[in-house]
Amino acid sequence: MLTIGLLGGMSWESSAEYYRLANELVRDRLGGLHSARLLLYSVDFAEIAELQAAGRWDDAAEILAAAAKALETAGADLLLLCTNTMHKVAGRIQGAVGVPMLHIADTAAAAVRGAGLTTVGLLATAFTMEQDFYRDHLARHGLTLLVPDEADRALVHRVIYDELCRGIVREESRAAYRDVIARLVGRGAQGVILGCTEIELLIGPEDSAVPVFPTTRLHVEAAVDRALS
């Protein structure tokens, strides 16, 4: 079994899901007392969030590249960056290490294409919904991405940072997200990518009339496949 390096803490709420899912998947596939071989580097999210808000992406990339190097030095055979938003600097991080880093958008795109869909909605942070890095990556897989309107983007972003990243799950926010999803479906979305790792704490298949694609779970599944191959 290969050792998976988790570059997490953004937020720790979703990184805990990465840890849980990896261990559950290995247990289910190998049976008995098997669990995943994992290394976790958890950053201080407040520091990263401040750099995001200030547009200092290069500075954030330096922090994460150093963390990736530390995971490689500690023995990680492959890396997962446990956040969608910071894949904006995925190239910088991958360039700092010699082991592969599985890109979260690649795993999401593979699932969408595997379901036979081409047009999907995206729920994510404002950075991910409004900047080109995620859309362009999915476009290279032949996918068309729909994002919510301005008011809905603000709502989705606020719930992520003010609630989900703090471990707060509210029924009112779940209902609001359901409405956002319904509006995306009304515009032609055949499915919805849950493009922020915390959103899976709030939204599941039962909240959408079309398939949802949980990026955290898909990311971990791809890593476990690689680790056990």
From TrEMBL:
Q: Which UniProt key words apply to this protein?
A: Isomerase
Q: Does the keyword Secreted apply?
A: no
A Pfam entry, by short name: Asp_Glu_race
Keyword Isomerase listed? The answer is yes
Q: Which InterPro entries is this protein grouped with?
A: Asp/Glu/hydantoin_racemase, Asp/Glu_race, Asp_race
NCBIfam families xrefs? asp_race (TIGR00035)
- Identify its protein family: Belongs to the aspartate/glutamate racemases family.
Its recorded name reads: Aspartate/glutamate racemase family protein
